[in-house]
Amino acid sequence: MAKVAIGIPCFNEEPYIAGTLLSAIQQLEDCSDLEILVSDNKSSDRTVSKVEDILDTVTIAKDRVTLIKQDENIGANQNFWQVYDNTDSELFMWLGGHDQISGGYAQRGLAHMSEFSNTALFTGKHRALNADGAVTDHPIKYDFLQENPIERYLQSIVQLSNCYIFHSIFRRKDLLNFQLGSTPGTDHIIISRLLWSGVLHQSDDCFYSRRYFPEADRAAKLAKGAYPHERNNMEFYDAYLQDLTQLVQPLPNLVGEAIITQAANLLIQRFGLPFFGNAE
After folding, report:
1. pTM: predicted TM-score of the whole model, two decimal places
2. Which of 60, 240, 260, 270 has the largest CB neighbor count within 10 A?
3. 3-class DSSP string for 250-268
4. 255 belongs to a structural domain
């Protein structure tokens, strides 16, 4: 069992998957306790052949990178969980199929997480990749260093906008009993849950380069319900508060209820009133 695993879910990433996979493979050079798992969600382009070409030619990858080829499209959400469920490392990170990480990322994350038990998420500085591959410095700083887990959790509802820190290295045990679902905004819920367990460390020594596509692409995903919005937020709120209900169970009932009420109020302030009616 490797100490760290990088999971790369992908679908029709032919223009980008080579750069993504090679950025993960370079981590193997200085992190001996790392495995990489790629899950292709029945791509209709040359994504799989690009991955297979790399696995056939890059020696260091042969025994430490695994490719899963889905027999049918199982949906993006399920494909994300495939790479998680099919690894058993202590530490894990999701790497987007069109994103990249800088050299030494995994080793720095492993060293930091081993030394600082109060860190729940380790990530590098954020950079933006456009569709053509141009890289732009795009600092995103979050203050999730509060000692009180309740404060960190509530601050995540207030502060989170760009969820690139979803791709942090985290401890698998901190997602224990998380309920798998297809709710829009699951990345937001997972970040909050992990912050209940510890702080966020944003390293100045490595980079997570996240690829951004034209606004029209995001608008199309929004129309399909990929993100929480005023027409589908009830499902998002329900999943968020159900998970928080599980987290507050060890607390006195009245305290737990007060935290849930505060979280509900903050969610409504951020995402609008719960929508009742036909969301079609």
Report:
1. 0.93
2. 240
3. CCCHHHHHHHHHHHHHHHH
4. no
